[in-house]
Every structure is written in C-alpha cells, then in structure tokens.
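User: Fold this; tokens only.

Assistant: Input:
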Amino acid sequence: MALLELRNVTRRFGDFAAVDDVSLSIEAGEFFTLLGPSGSGKTTILRMIAGFEFPDAGQVLLDGKDLADIPAEKRPIHTVFQSYALFPHLTVAENISFPLRMAHREPADIRQHLKDALEQVHLDAKAGKFPHELSGGEKQRVALARALVNRPRLLLLDESLAALDAKLREEMQVELINLQREVGITFVFVTHAQAEALALSHRIAVINRGKVEQVDEPARLYGFPRNRFVADFIGQITMIPAQVEQVGHGHLHLKVDGLGEIVTPLQQGVAAGDRGVFAIRPEQVRIGVQAELAELKNHFSGEVLSLLYQGDVSVYRVGLTNGTMIEALLPNSAPGRAELFKVGAEIRVGWRHDAGVFLHE
C-alpha cells in the first residue's frame, strides 16, 4: 500500500477548478516532485495534503486513512515554505526544538532530538545564533531541521529553494538529496524549475491546468514525454510537424513536408496516417559536413542561424531547407570560445534512428 494517495481529488474556487480529478500514489521513502508552471495547481495539491485546503471531491489518504477530518496541526506532516517562517526572536536551537516543546516532550528527549537534527544539517556551531545572523542557505537548513526534528511521516516542501541564488541552490539540492536519503522520510516537493525537479526526484508528476499530464522517473519523463506539453515544458526540444508514413519493425517512418523522411523509434498507439510532431533534444542532434554524418539514418542540409556560447557547451540554431529551425548542442572541450561553425555556414545536421519521439497532435 502506498504511503500517500490522492483519489480523484478536485478543488474549486468558484467556477475555476484549480485541481481537477487528480489521482496520485506516493511510496514511503520517495522523493516525489509536483512540477508545473505557475497557476497549474501544484501548490493547491500540496496544501490539501498538508490540511490547509480541503478537497471539494475525492480523498487524500495517508497509510490508507482518509485525512478529511484531521486538521493540519494533527497530521503527521510538516511543511517547509519558501519564506522559511523562522521565529526571529528565537535562536537556531530554539527554532528547531519548538515543535518538540509544543508537543510537551521530555527535556532529555528534546536535547537528544535537537542534537541529532543539528548534526544532520551541519549547524552544530550555529545553535546559539539568531535567524538574522544566518545566510540564506543556513536559514534553509534550520527550516528543514525544524520540520524533521519529530520525524513526520511526510515532509512537504513548497518552492523551498526558490529564494536562493543559483550556486547556493545547487549546493542545497545536493544537501536535500543526502538528507532525504539519510532520514528516509518521504519528501513531496513543489517547484516550477525543471532542472531542479530532474536533479532531485525519484519520480515527478507534471501538472498543467489542474490535471496530471504524466508521472514518471526523471529520465523517462525527459526522454519519453507523453505529449507535447510535457516535451515542451521539460528542457529544450525541437518539434517538427510530421505524418506517420509507415509503421515498420522497431521504427516509425515519418514524412516531413519539404524535408523528406525521418526514421524514429516505434511507439505503441501510433498508426500510418497519424499526424503530429517529431520531437528531438538538442544534445541528440549532430552537426558537421556530409562525410561526418553519412552513417546516420537522418541527415539534412541546413544553415547556421545563430550560436550561443554557454561555457561548457555551445548551442547552434540551424535553419533546415523547409524553414524549420533545429537546435544542436555541442560540448566545448577546449578552453576559450569554441566556434566550430560560423553563422551563415552551410552544414549538415543529423541524428540517430533511435533518437527523438513522435507525439500526436
């Protein structure tokens, strides 16, 4: 049995369905992420799990028990907010031990739990400091330690890394992964940042307009998106209008107007005549001269339209003969500015027969 289940949950605000018939199943010990654009309903889902909102229809179950009649403060669930919500007049130690004192735990028990929590988040030396004396990352750790100190069944994190700068955010992602693995508590994380979700999660639910578009492991979500929304929302991707010409043994043969045939992996539920798009990631696309790409099933002529240097990689935007623009990502192995192909250069682009995916309209 799953630790947490949402069964056909709906939450309305007037005529607007913020969450529309959502069903999810989250396992014990899982790092599960709700990912979607602003206004997609992911935070409303989190608030219903926490008990700050109640569904208009459906059930939220923890260990198989309906949480409908259990108020937020009685649920074995803690939430870490983007603002951290630390008490400014309390020290780090007092902030962390606050939930234990409210639960009237024995002083010796409080001291031991506090010691363990401080060690877990590496704040032993900051126990006597106040929030205004801490960095953003340290405040984040205090908020996490306070949420974990009495071992909830579930920890909810609502955009909790959003206030950090890029470098610190990356460091905290590593700390979150290690902390979740160490304590073994189920984390449910809300974010709109795709890279963050891919880096942290065991599984991700992509939410759009109150509905679940796809639930999957990060690699499958990135490599095998179920529809155009997921493909476009997760990372960079080129989508080329195409029609299925033939369903072969292990492959689809697609027809692209003004370009020719594209060979791509076979998919269930696809038949000859189907219309949609061929979607491919920039890192799957190679660029070069004719001889370099001749062994690839898919290779076409194009012109370099622009070059974006990003340090470790360069992103080339190439215009194909039918007017389609496709992106190719090339690593920069040498120091300094790498410019293998200049803007305006006539080149070839290509990709393997097992790259990309066909998506219905």
